[in-house]
What does this fold into?
Amino acid sequence: MKRLVILGGGTAGTMVANKLRAAIPRHELHITVVDRDDAHHYQPGYLFMPFGIYTTNDVVRSRHRFIADGIDLLLTEIDRVDPTYRAVHLADGRTLGYDYLVIATGVAPRPDATPGMQGALWGDKVHEFYSLPGAQALTEAMRRFRGGRLVVHITEMPIKCPVAPLEFTFLADDWLRKHGIRERTELIYVTPLDGAFTKPVASRELNTALTDHQIALETDFAVEQIDNDTAELVSFDGRRIGFDLLVTVPLNMGADYVARSGMGDELNLVPCDQHTMAALNHPDVYVLGDAGTLQTSKAGSVAHFAADVFVHNFVAEFQGRPATHSFDGHANCFIESGNRKGMLLDFNYTTEPFTGSFPLPAVGPFKLLAETHLNHLGKLAFRWIYWNMLLPGRPIPFIPTAMSLAGKRVESDVGPAATGLSAPEQPSSPTPPPRPAKPRLETKPLATPRPSPVPSASAGRPAPRPSSAPAPVAAAAMASVGGYVDRPGVDSTADPATILPHPIVPKF
It folds into this structure.
């Protein structure tokens, strides 16, 4: 009997365990899942807690309820992995041998990595919502807020659910209006990126949405520290942004045991193949969910699509057949935009988010990169889908694993990656036009809050602090991904979600 150990019983780990349990008989494959406790968190729900939409009971359930029969669930901390001897050393002294290992322990916020973030203002004027305690504390802070400068800030990319800070900003705008204090509040979105998102078309549409909501945008902001004496964000280029309430997204890092195991980069992310999720330089080790270096969003949809590809290939190779599937980086994300509306992104490694209809051309019913009430309902419906379909391992109807261009209005002037052409066929990238100067922010907190920052002409900025350079092995994994093309022996069009004829029914 072969042994599979899955580190992490979150989204990716649970899906993979359940799918493989349904596909491979128990007497052929023993599956063990390891996690620190029995609390499974619906992390997208943290976003809604500060606005009173969800409570703790809506986002936390028992892991045991979603782990299928025939899977061992061990509740303990992980000390380290020894890939040479194929062993996982647990904090309680036990050692698990394995034939195959899946690392799915995700990432977590690390406010301790930014000077001053956990200073005197932490939990008072400085908050985060990427953890359950953080979302709970921010809920109380929002209830106390009476106006002033509210700053939403991203420390550094990558982060899990990269649209969540935008969603919080839009929801905050809506919440402030409903509570009659929006006119007394200056709302500012601060990002290390050069726009609201990483992709040109999506960034353009989201920049417009921020403007429509009267939300100021401060880009290229590499934070050096949080000054607790003056209540200011301080960048490496000298900019200072004061706040009355700071909602920050701390640096996201992988688990510490990855570092102790010598398997990760500077962020404790495990370098892996972009199409197979196989760990580089570590045979029979795979990385699912947010724990790896896939060059796409760290999101539940990505975990779902990547898990489908992995399971299909794993089952094939386990049964002595060649692997036939390749992950294309598919990501699908709803974006709450307030006032009971939402937006939708759908993209992959080589195709950026475009406008259009999803999943069916013209019919939709969802609209890409457009604010609609139906998109908002889709966002809220995802919680039910998560508990009842994703975790148990059921395929989601009408949503193929591989991204489709059907219904998308492809724009030809945003670079070759958007066209989906294979690498040899791609034309040279056009030189992007220079970005227009935009309003700069006042550097001190306002004595009397004003609804918008004071504009001033900007003649340019010092270069921001560069992101941390990855380790050499990580750099190889994080290199630009080539066009999504059929490789020898790879069927890139089939939907691996169909390999589970008998979906697992969760134990409610």
